[in-house]
Write a structure and sequence with these properties.
single chain; alpha+beta; Catalase HpII,  Chain A, domain 1; 8 helices; 9 strands; globular
């Protein structure tokens, strides 16, 4: 084992230790320190950025963007093929499925004209599949790998053309439990994927030649020992069109401010148990909020390390995601999760994904989904056909 790998493993062991004590200190730290630390980090991030003088919802492709996207795809493909055999392949990111549940996505009435585009153009209720998952790229016990969770919402029965032709009548929304992404752009993401393959992901952030300390701190502010996938906020981190010439980010926020307890001796799948247990007892309601871009520099399209300031454009509710009481079997959950494909390009043109991370996701997600399903002998299911 290389010295870099040994150093990464030591640091990872410290992270695992922190996960054990996190539930006892995190609430106080979040209340007192997260806001000021985030403000300082974002000031440093913005200090190093130059104004590209773009317009609202305007994109600017990176140099060699196609080549970088292909390199990321190859790197993640190699990882999946090395780590998984036939019939056992999982997603290379957002890896561990906690559950795929059914829900209803209801667009609110009397939205302002500027928000009434795409699926929000009129009051309606869509059936939905909602996947809750852990970070990845592997699936260890939850207590060791649950810092940043993810959500993927697939609306069914959506009218209009979609940007990917492998599904019809669907609209996907995806998010993670942090307001910024792990990397600012795909050039840095390629470096991260190379570290992941080498078994040294933490050294991507701490490498002496090219450290990413601000991104490390931002992820650390939100990476925590979660109590339940239903008790955290999820952010899109990257922007999307909202109609023509208008950009948005969105978030999904639990309406109840409850906080469960992490078991003293948590089982390997305690987050799945928390999700199943909550939905066995009651309905769960989450609000879907949209934040419009009003300042192209302070709210960039091409840099996913920057938090869009709420003081420049507050997030406003546009829909409600309701998860009714339900029972689900573990085997059925994993079988359904394997058949479903979530991709931000399963979208109406009015919600076209924006920015280099999103442009790369189109091909990366499509390729890796096909690879996973091919290795597992699973056919892609288009749930829109039955909607």
């Amino acid at each position: 084992m290389s010295a870099a790998r040994r150093l990464n493993d030591v640091l990872l062991a410290l992270v695992h230790l922190e996960r054990r004590i996190d539930p006892y200190v995190r609430p106080l730290l979040d209340r007192t320190l997260r806001g000021p630390v985030q403000a300082l980090v974002q000031w440093l991030v913005n200090l190093r950025r130059r104004d590209q003088h773009l317009g609202i919802a305007e994109e600017r492709p990176l140099p060699d963007e196609t080549e970088v996207t292909e390199a990321i795809t190859r790197q993640m493909t190699r990882f999946v093929q090395r780590e998984y055999g036939p019939g056992t392949a999982r997603r290379a990111g957002n890896t561990k499925t906690y559950g795929v549940v059914h829900g209803e996505f209801t667009v609110l009435e009397d939205l302002p004209e500027r928000l009434r585009h795409g699926v929000f153009r009129r009051p309606a209720t869509f059936r939905a599949w909602v996947r809750f998952a852990g970070p990845g790229p592997l699936s260890p016990p939850d207590i060791k790998d649950n810092g940043v969770l993810s959500i993927a919402v697939k609306l069914l029965g959506v009218e209009g053309p979609t940007l990917l032709d492998d599904e019809r009548a669907t609209q996907d929304f995806t998010g993670i439990s942090a307001p910024t992404f792990t990397t600012p752009d795909i050039a840095e993401n390629l470096l991260l994927q190379q570290h992941v393959y080498a078994g040294t992901p933490l050294l991507y952030f701490l490498g002496p030649r090219h450290p990413h300390l601000c991104d490390l701190v931002m992820q650390g502010l939100y990476a925590k020992t979660h109590t339940s996938p239903l008790e955290t906020r999820y952010w899109s981190c990257v922007p999307y069109l909202l109609g023509e010439g208008q950009a948005m980010q969105y978030s999904v926020v639990p309406r109840e401010r409850t906080r469960s307890r992490v078991p003293r001796h948590p089982p390997d799948d305690y987050l799945q148990q928390a999700l199943a247990g909550a939905l066995r007892r009651r309905d769960v309601v989450l609000d879907f909020l949209v934040q419009l871009q009003t300042d192209p520099h302070r709210m960039p399209v091409e840099n996913a390390s920057v938090v869009w300031p709420e003081r420049l454009s507050p997030s406003v509710p546009v829909a409600v995601l309701r998860l009714p009481r339900q029972e689900f079997e573990e085997d059925e959950q994993f079988a359904l999760a394997d058949r479903l494909t979530f991709n931000p390009w399963h979208a109406l043109p009015e919600h076209r994904p924006l920015g280099n991370q999103n442009r790369a996701r189109r091909e990366i997600y499509l390729h890796l989904s096909r690879l996973r399903q091919s290795m597992n002998g699973t056919s892609h299911e288009d749930p829109g056909k039955a909607a």
